[in-house]
Design brief:
The chain has a domain of 200 residues: Ribosomal Protein S5, domain 2, CATH 3.30.230.10. It is built from eleven helices and 13 strands. By secondary structure, the chain is α+β, with helices and mostly antiparallel strands. Helix content is 43%, strand content 22%. The structure holds alpha-D-galactopyranose.
């Protein structure tokens, strides 16, 4: 059902008349480089063939009216004013509009309708798809001239200021800059990026959704970020050049070991290792060495589970299943605490892995996992 334009037009028509334009914006995968973005490190995401389809029309008023097909709910809010909508999904749109306005740009009232097929809570960045769809569409409709880097930052600022997640830039960047058949090697500090062709001959990339999302108290994502920043600050006292953990080495981490908690020592160790693992994977991709790519993925999983502690029983089980079925590489993908594993599987082992993993997982947790083949696709765009 991805990007069904006739369908979204019909939905729009029922509520608001004929749309001016249609847009699409995808979710993302990330091959490796997890929890490195807010540490100024590298990531290796790609946009996927699942996303948000949006129909929009300027309405000449000072009201914004949006209908979400997924929630079957319409929300209205004013062009100015601080009253956030109560619905979380609408707060993303509210945030995008306010962040655009903060940058001195003017948008008018509009009507919009959208639906999405990025599974929620799966670590595939459904929220970035939504943010990018709106920032891209408004930038285009109102001729705002905001460059795509700033569009990504507007999405990120929306998470920070209107949703309370202090995320990095990876998801929004991937959703806006995605390119069919390519991963994006992004330096999250300088925002320099390079497209890396990704056609692993003889292999398939597949996601297994654990279909659990453990909503934990005390915002563990923000808490991981704070831990990293605290360790970087401790190192900076001796090495002023260390702005973020991306600049730190294992030797520097050892120097401050006595001054930081064991937990923070483990967290930072994961990040420093992960920055290097990503560079190793990029080298291996250049040589079509998927065995090394896969080994690094397993290392990342182990680090995310034991050092960074963002895994859960279900994801560790899926990772063990990957090993059991001879999968080349497998790991948790995204923020963690549920969602998907990403798996690099030899073609010849694919069927046995998928059917076996689904049965084994279901037998253990009584939840049917979902399976998505990854199709690396284009980023946010105008459709009509
Ligand atoms: C979430 C965040 C990203 C990134 C990942 C972990 O998806 O939105 O910025 O930090 O987690 O790599």
């Amino acid at each position: 059902m991805t990007y069904d334009l006739r369908f979204i037009k019909d939905v729009f028509r029922k509520h608001y008349g004929t749309p001016d334009a249609l847009y699409a914006s995808p979710g993302r995968i990330n091959l490796i480089g997890e929890h490195t973005d807010y540490n100024g490190g590298f990531v290796l995401p790609g946009a996927i063939d699942k996303g948000i389809t949006l129909a929009i029309k300027t309405n000449g008023t000072d009201k914004i009216r949006v209908f979400s097909l997924d929630y079957e709910e319409a929300v209205e809010f004013a062009l100015t004013g601080a009253d956030k909508p109560v619905q979380l999904w609408a707060r993303y749109i509210f945030g995008i509009v306010r962040e655009i306005q903060k940058r001195g740009k003017t948008v008018g009232g509009f009507d919009a309708a959208f639906y999405g097929d990025v599974p929620l809570g799966a670590g595939l960045s459904s929220s970035a798809a939504l943010e990018s769809a709106f920032v891209f569409a408004l930038n285009d409709r109102y001729g705002l001239g905001i460059d795509p880097f700033e569009c990504a930052k507007i999405g990120q600022a929306t998470e920070h200021n209107y949703v309370g997640v202090k995320c990095g830039i990876m998801d929004q960047f991937a959703s806006l800059f995605g390119k069919k058949g390519h991963l994006i090697r992004l330096d999250c500090r300088s925002l320099e990026y390079r497209y890396v062709p990704f056609h692993p001959v003889g292999y398939r990339l597949v996601l297994i959704n654990s279909c659990v999302k453990h909503e934990l108290v005390n915002n563990p994502y923000n808490n991981r970020r704070e831990a990293c920043e605290a360790v970087a600050a401790a190192i900076r006292k001796r090495h002023p050049e260390v702005e973020l953990l991306r600049d730190a080495t294992f030797a520097m981490l050892e120097e401050v070991k006595a001054e930081i908690s064991n937990e923070n020592y483990a967290r930072a160790g994961f990040v420093i290792g992960e920055v290097q693992r990503l560079l190793d994977v990029c080298d291996a991709l250049g040589k079509d060495d998927y065995v090394t790519v896969g080994r690094k993925m397993y290392e990342t999983h182990s680090g995310l589970s034991k050092l960074y502690e963002v895994s859960c029983e279900e994801l560790d089980f899926l990772n063990d299943l990957a090993k059991k079925y001879g999968v080349t590489g497998s790991r948790i993908m995204g923020g963690g605490f549920g969602g998907c594993t990403i798996n690099l599987v030899e073609e010849a082992k694919y069927n046995a892995f998928i059917s076996g993993a689904v049965i084994d997982y279901q037998a253990k947790f009584h939840i049917k996992p979902e399976v998505y083949d990854v199709v690396i696709s284009d980023g946010a765009r105008k459709m009509e």
